[in-house]
Amino acid sequence: MEHVIALDVGGTGMKAALVAADGTLLHQARRPTGRERGPDAVVESVLRFAADLRAHGERAYGRPAAAAGVAVPGLVDERAGVALYSANLGWRDAPLRDLLARRLGGTPVALGHDVRVGGLAEGRLGAGQGAERFLFVALGTGIAGATGIENRVEATELGHVVVRPGGPACACGGRGCLEAAASAAAVARAWEAAGGGPDAGAAGCAAAVEAGDPRAAAVWDEAVAALADGLVTGITLLAPGTLIVGGGLAEAGDTLLAPLRAAVERRLTFQQLPLIVPAALGDTAGCLGAGLLAWDLLSLEVTA
């Protein structure tokens, strides 16, 4: 059976799959990145994982993968196939596409930004299907976005829109960025400061909100307000018909989405209110999107 390799490289772990042409996940696996051993070791972990997937595909389906797609965090030059920088993984200017192609015996490889790749999957296979224009927002340790317009998906640095001037420091060096005010990490910090405990995290805050804790409600309301301010900026600039909310914070479901929809609607004046929906693919979006990158690469080679 013809298949491709899909790798989704995160800050601490990697998710991988062998993906059929119709998007079926034929085989799935996970491994740690080994980032504690340094950036060179992370790159080697990625290469070894890809090689093991290739070998598994040969054994299981009688042929090697036709292509590979890899989603990575940080700054990415997709055209050159270079992972320029990742604060979490420590690498700089890593030529991952060429390194992977060499390790995989000349297999064609596509490299993509993780959130753009997740948006690609949500647009084609998930909550954005049928939408001419959508905005995908991933609410995790940070906040990032991807804009889909007529089958094209581009990364959007929505997380670094300033929503609270002079506010909390952001990892980018600025202050008051959306990421610093409304990410899962920001909610966890605020909830700990409010007395939620050092290990409660954003999920703990959401649970406390549902239980009626007023301290948690105050933290949650501030995060929702900041998030709504940032999203209205995105809506004003991009005019999406559908706004897809994903990432770890979105796992709170209607505890997040119900007040967020109301807060966004209150802030809009002339802008059209988009349909605000949860992401549909969960943590498989990265692998599915990486698989789509690989299949798209094969399509380009056929038409070239």
Describe the structure.
42% of the residues lie in helices and 23% in strands. The model has no long low-confidence stretch (mean pLDDT 93). Strand 12 (242-246), helix 8 and strand 13 (275-278) form a beta-alpha-beta unit. With 304 residues, the protein is an alpha/beta fold. The relative contact order is 0.15. Helix 1 crosses helix 2 (96-103), helix 5 packs across helix 6 and helix 6 (201-210) crosses helix 7.
Properties at a glance:
304 residues, alpha/beta, five-stranded mixed sheet, 9 helices, 13 strands, 42% helix, globular
Q: What is shown here, in short?
A:
The protein is 42% helix and 23% strand.
Estimated radius of gyration: 20 Å
The description of the largest β-sheet is:
5 strands, mixed
* Number of DSSP E strands: 13
The shape, in one word, is: globular
Q: How helix-rich are the residues, as a percent range?
A: 40-55%
What is the element string, with H for helices and E for strands? EEEHEEEEHEHEEEHHHHEHEH
Structural class: alpha/beta
Can you list the strand order of the major beta sheet? Answer: 3-2-1-4-8
C-alpha end-to-end distance: 24 Å
Q: What is the overall pLDDT average?
A: 93
Low-confidence stretches: none
Number of helix segments?
9
Proportion in β-strands: 15-25%
